[in-house]
Amino acid sequence: MRPNAVIIGLGQLGRSLAEGLVLAGWTVTGVRRDQTASELARPDLVVVATGEDDLGPALETLPPDWRSHRVVLLQNELLPDQWRRHGIIDPTILVVWFSRKPGELVRELRPSVVAGPHASAIRSALSALDLHAVEVTPSEVISALVEKNVYIWSMNLAALLVPDPTTSRVLGEFRDVYDALCRETVHIHEAALGHPIGDVAALCDGVAAILANEGERRLGGRSAKRRAERLAALARTLGVDAPTVARAAESA
Ligand SMILES: NC(=O)c1ccc[n+]([C@@H]2O[C@H](COP(=O)([O-])OP(=O)(O)OC[C@H]3O[C@@H](n4cnc5c(N)ncnc54)[C@H](OP(=O)(O)O)[C@@H]3O)[C@@H](O)[C@H]2O)c1
Predict the structure, then answer these.
(1) Does domain 4-136 have CATH number 3.30.360.10?
(2) Which fold has domain 139-250?
(3) 197-231: per-residue pLDDT in tens?
(4) Which of 74, 77, 213, 242 sits CB 3.0–4.6 Å from 235 for a disulfide?
């Protein structure tokens, strides 16, 4: 029998994973917002492909016996507390380094990173779409999550603070804004994870190099403001002083 997967959230990434898993030989059932996953038989894996704000409510709807070893998470801004507080045990974590936007071709920035019990199935699904992923251990994936979070938050928040925010302006004329955002984002992650992250300057330089490699483009987008609000709220909850993040969250 073919293995079966449920995909909760049929947006950009949910559709990609659905297509990749079908091509890799899985039977896939999609769940829209107006449908209930718990009416289905327990799948071999369940990809929760909602946006960040919908993740907690979606995880809450999962039946208890779906929560161990079979959940796949792929959100930006992901940190372990977000799955632990919903009783998700040993999830497969996909740190996505490709971009799929409505009306655009899929753009792969670098190989994605995947860890957990279904890492090789997810890698095969991406491979069926000509996308690449490297498998790492569950402890290594935390560093990969931090790197992606720092990238996504620094880039989006810089776009709220820098006039005419292009890559070259954020990494050139306004590099101090980028550096402050990056440092504060790392400190928030250190507080969330409960341990130091190591060489912060090297991490920020590495993320800046990833951005620079993408070439010149306009930064930001419709989700930037909400990302800033979520990071500022996380800093407040953790008691981390993050004035540049707060300024981005308060910007128009
Ligand atoms: N797209 C990318 O290139 C990309 C790259 C890296 C990471 N990510 C991350 O991946 C996550 C998903 O991104 P996306 O671009 O795929 O977002 P998206 O296109 O907005 O898709 C999210 C989908 O989840 C659905 N949804 C929300 N709550 C649901 C629920 N309880 N049950 C069923 N469906 C539900 C939404 O339905 P409605 O339409 O009803 O709202 C929407 O169709 C985000 O965290 C994003 O930051 C995306």
Answers:
(1) no
(2) N-(1-d-carboxylethyl)-l-norvaline Dehydrogenase; domain 2 (1.10.1040)
(3) 989 999 999 999 999 999 899 998 889 999 999 99
(4) 242
